[in-house]
Hints:
Elements: H1 2-18, H2 30-59, H3 66-69, H4 83-107, H5 111-142, E1 152-154, E2 159-161, E3 174-175, E4 180-182, E5 185-186, E6 189-190, E7 194-197, E8 202-204, H6 210-243, H7 245-249, H8 254-279
Helix pairs in contact: 2-6, 2-8, 4-5, 4-8, 5-6, 6-8
Amino acid sequence: MATDHSLQTHDHSSDAQLWNGAKEPFKASYGKLMMWYFLLSDAFTFAGFLITYGTLRFSSPTWPVPDFVFSSLPGGIQHKPLIFVTIMTFVLILSSVTMVRAVQEGHRENRKGVVFWMLLTIVGGLAFLGCQAWEWTTLIKGEHMSITRNPFGTHIESGTYLEGDGHDIKEGDTFHAGQSFLIHKHDGHWAPLKYKTEAGDVKEQQFGPKAFGALFFFITGFHGFHVFSGVVFLLIIMLNVWSGIYIKRRNKNEMVEKIGLYWHFVDLVWVFVFLVFYLL
Length: 280
């Protein structure tokens, strides 16, 4: 009887230890686990948007070529494909490196080190947002692209222009199928150019697919919102680190690590956005 009683006591104590809730799943705190859940759901959201873009991109007979659309640089420099967006990407990836250093200093509970590297991360995020604002301004004001109209097009047949646009195209210039073009505005009005095909038919330039502008502004804007939110949270957490709140908790600045997970996710998503929009 005594033996049975001791066995029952042992079983109950084992059950109590198993279900007492003190063990952290996957050796991660509740806060970090919830951050991973959020990032996973957000990854599915971005994946849905990018798959939609890819589906429309490859199902359309004509689509703007990224080398032609994204070829401007500040200072009026033109025809430098993808250089500016490459700079944007480098800035964001560099900010991810500084975020790694901030997390490392947080584990060492080096308050000044955390603040220094987080400040550099914030500067990198603001620089990226500034670059994105310049890119949007160029596309909207300079090239008149919107969510409902896309002036960038691609010829589906070869021919000869019957008139010029006052910019790069002159009367008599020839073009080939697959060559990109941009419809300009003159005196506030759209001026699609007329051209003659090799078969002798006279036609007019057509605007590009509306989905290109709509998806570009929506997806890059959605990512930009994530970057902006990250900068705000980074600033708040940096101020908390400076005040010494997290040192009192004695959890090795876990909040810095959690915002670091978010920031690395934002950087990783941009790699896929860069691949889909600027390289395909």
